[in-house]
Design goal:
Elements: E1 8-13, H1 23-37, H2 50-57, H3 59-62, E2 67-73, E3 76-83, E4 90-98, H4 107-121, E5 126-132, H5 136-144, E6 148-149, E7 159-164
Parallel strand pairs: 4-5
Antiparallel strand pairs: 1-2, 2-3, 3-4, 5-7, 6-7
Length: 165
């Protein structure tokens, strides 16, 4: 087994995203995979709900007030997570995705760690997230990062709400 170098993780203000950052491809994969997990047949990005298509078509607009942490393996974007600006001391992590070809290399952990660091630097006292209950690997990752399950703030069935203080 060959050791592979770690990926580089950088935070970018959403308003500064460019069309060449690779985020469109990552978000497309994320949303298509999520819809498939829910059992919804979506043939491609055009079949996604409008709210998800808007993120794919213009991440810069969708995340203008947020920060996007991107992991790169060389020049290729291989992972991302969005961190919202704190509101009343609470930031939110969403859209964590790592390309399946680089999973097992600590990319998701690095993204979560960078997201938490950015949230703290931005003045967040707490960071929250929601994750589908069937994503046991993600729930375990978040627990290792210090998140705990809290009462749900989202009425959708199957979501687990977690918070890091």
């Amino acid at each position: 087994m060959t050791d592979q170098p770690p990926v580089a993780v950088t935070a970018v203000a959403g308003r500064d995203l460019s069309s060449t950052d690779g985020l469109t491809e990552l978000l497309t994969a994320y949303h298509l995979f999520t819809e498939a997990e829910k059992g919804l047949a979506v043939g491609g990005a055009d079949g996604l709900p409008d709210r998800y298509r808007s993120e794919i078509l213009s991440p810069r607009s969708a995340f203008a007030d947020d920060t996007v942490v991107v992991a790169r393996d060389g020049r290729a974007a291989v992972g991302c997570v969005v961190v919202t600006a704190p509101v009343e001391g609470v930031a939110e992590i969403k859209r964590l995705w790592v390309d399946p070809s680089v999973r097992g290399r600590g990319v998701a952990s690095a993204l979560v760690e960078a997201a938490l660091a950015h949230a703290a630097e931005s003045g967040a006292l707490r960071v929250r997230l929601s994750v589908w209950s069937w994503r046991s690997g993600a729930i375990a990752l978040y627990a290792r990062a210090g998140f705990g399950v809290v009462e749900s703030w989202d009425a959708r069935d199957g979501l687990v709400c977690m918070e890091h203080a």
